[in-house]
Design brief:
The chain is an alpha/beta fold. 37% of the residues lie in helices and 14% in strands. The protein has 2 domains: 149 residues, Aspartate Aminotransferase, domain 1 (Alpha-Beta Complex); 238 residues, 3-Layer(aba) Sandwich (Aspartate Aminotransferase, domain 2), CATH 3.40.640.10.
Length: 396
C-alpha cells in the first residue's frame, strides 16, 4: 500500500476507474442479436459491409477485416513482401505487435527514436536508420495523434519504401484535414474494447492498392480462394485452391455487426474524448512538474490515450510511487509503453539499451490517465483531483 493510502485518508473514489472501456448501447445489442438469430455467425454479409463502411469512413478504396490488430499488421507485412534479410523501421514507442509482425515474416525490425514533443517517430532519425536492406516503415500514431505523414512519405518515395501506418489508436483522427487511413500504402486500425470503436477483438487494413488488397484477402483465409478468375484449374462448383501460405485470421459476422453499429457513433465518441482532453489540459497544465500532451498543428487527434509526463526532479519519489498512489485513489492509471526493444525477448535478439534515448527517457516519466467516452464529468474531475492530491503530497 502506498504512503498516500496510509496517511491520506479516504481515496478520491469508492470504485475503480479503468484507463479505458468500451461503450455498448441498445442498438449494439440489437445488431448482435440480429446476427445470432440469422444464418451466418462467421464470414457473411456483415463482414463485407463493415469493410465497405470503414473504407468509406477513411477515404480508402479497400478494407480487409481480420481477427485483431496484430493479425492485420502481419497481413500487411505479408502483402508488402517482407521476408528474411529485409529490414523494417518501426517506432520504438509502441506496443510489441508493431515490431513482432516484422519478425513473423522473417524480417528484422530497426527501431527509430521519437520526436520529444509529439512522441511519434522522429522523421530525421528514421532516415538515418535506412540501410540497403530497408524495405518498409511502420510509423505509429501514438495516443491517436497522426505521424508526420508528409515527411514520412517523402522519405519513402526517395528510397522506394512501403509505408504501413499503425493507426491502432487513430480511427477518426485527421492529418491536415484528411482522415487517417488513406495516406499510407496500408493502414491498420484496431477494434479492441479500449480503442475508438470495438468489435470485442478485431483489426482491419485499409488501402487503395488493389494488389495489396488481393494478397491480404487470400492471406486471412489460409491462402485459399474459390474465385473462378483466380483458379488454376476448375474441376467443378466445389473447387477451391490454396495459392499461398495464409492463416485463419477471419473476423466474424457477429463482430462486424457490432462494428457497424459502433461506427455510427464514432464522431460522438471522438468529440467526447476531445472534450475530456480539453478539461484535462486546462486543469493539469497548471500543475508544477506536469507536462501535458503536445499536439502538432497538422494533427486533429482522436485521443485514444492521455499521457502526462512528470518532471521527477520536482518530487520526493519516483514514478512508481506516484503510480501506486494514484491506483490507491482508485484511478486506473497505466503506462504506455515500454520501448519494444527493451523487452527480454528483444534483448536476447541482440537489441541494446540506449538505441533510442528519447523513447527511453519518455518511458521513465509518463503515466496514462483514464480516458474513454463513457466517462462522466464527475469521473473526469475525480481524476484531476487525484492527480492534484498525489502530486501535491509528493512535491518537494
Amino acid at each position: 500500500m502506498s504512503k498516500l493510502a496510509i496517511h491520506g485518508g479516504q481515496p478520491i473514489r469508492d470504485s475503480y476507474l479503468s484507463y479505458g472501456r468500451q461503450w455498448i448501447d441498445e442498438h449494439d445489442l440489437e445488431m448482435v442479436s440480429k446476427v445470432l438469430k440469422g444464418e451466418y455467425l462467421t464470414t457473411g454479409p456483415y463482414v463485407s459491409e463493415f469493410e465497405r463502411q470503414v473504407a468509406e469512413q477513411v477515404g480508402a478504396d479497400y478494407a480487409v477485416a481480420v481477427a485483431n490488430g496484430t493479425a492485420a499488421l502481419h497481413m500487411a507485412c505479408f502483402a508488402a513482401g517482407i521476408e528474411e534479410d529485409d529490414e523494417v523501421i518501426v517506432s520504438s514507442m509502441t506496443f510489441a505487435a508493431s515490431a513482432n509482425c516484422v519478425l513473423y515474416q522473417g524480417g528484422t525490425p530497426a527501431f527509430a527514436d521519437i520526436d520529444p514533443l509529439t512522441y511519434n517517430i522522429d522523421v530525421d532519425d528514421l532516415e538515418k536508420r535506412i540501410t540497403k536492406k530497408t524495405k518498409a516503415i511502420i510509423p505509429v500514431d501514438f495516443t491517436g495523434q497522426p505521424v508526420d505523414m508528409d515527411g514520412i512519405m517523402k522519405i519513402a518515395d526517395r528510397y522506394g519504401l512501403i509505408v504501413i501506418e499503425d493507426a491502432a489508436h487513430a480511427l477518426g483522427s485527421e492529418y491536415r484535414g484528411r482522415k487517417v487511413g488513406s495516406l499510407a500504402d496500408m493502414t491498420m486500425f484496431s477494434f479492441h474494447p479500449v480503442k475508438p470503436i470495438t468489435t470485442a477483438e478485431g483489426g482491419i487494413i485499409t488501402t487503395s492498392n488493389e494488389l495489396y488488397y488481393q494478397k491480404m484477402s487470400l492471406f486471412r483465409t489460409h491462402g485459399i480462394t474459390r474465385d473462378p478468375s483466380l483458379l488454376v484449374e476448375n474441376e467443378g462448383p466445389w473447387h477451391y485452391e490454396q495459392h499461398c501460405l495464409g492463416y485463419n485470421y477471419r473476423l466474424t459476422d457477429l463482430q462486424c455487426a457490432l462494428g457497424i453499429s459502433q461506427l455510427r457513433r464514432l464522431d460522438e465518441f471522438i468529440q467526447r474524448r476531445r472534450t475530456i482532453v480539453r478539461r484535462y489540459n486546462e486543469a493539469l497544465g497548471r500543475l508544477p512538474g506536469v507536462i501535458t500532451p503536445y499536439e502538432a498543428d497538422y494533427s486533429n487527434s482522436g485521443w485514444h490515450l492521455y499521457i502526462i509526463r512528470l518532471r521527477l526532479e520536482g518530487f520526493m519519489v519516483g514514478r512508481k510511487e506516484i503510480f501506486e498512489a494514484l491506483r490507491a485513489e482508485n484511478i486506473g492509471v497505466n503506462v504506455h509503453y515500454i520501448p519494444v526493444y527493451l523487452h527480454p525477448y528483444y534483448q536476447e535478439l541482440g537489441y541494446k539499451k540506449g538505441t533510442c534515448p528519447n523513447a527511453e527517457r519518455l518511458y521513465e516519466e509518463i503515466i496514462t490517465l483514464p480516458l474513454f467516452p463513457k466517462m462522466t464529468d464527475q469521473d473526469v474531475e475525480d481524476v484531476i483531483s487525484a492527480v492534484e492530491k498525489v502530486l501535491n503530497y509528493y512535491r518537494r
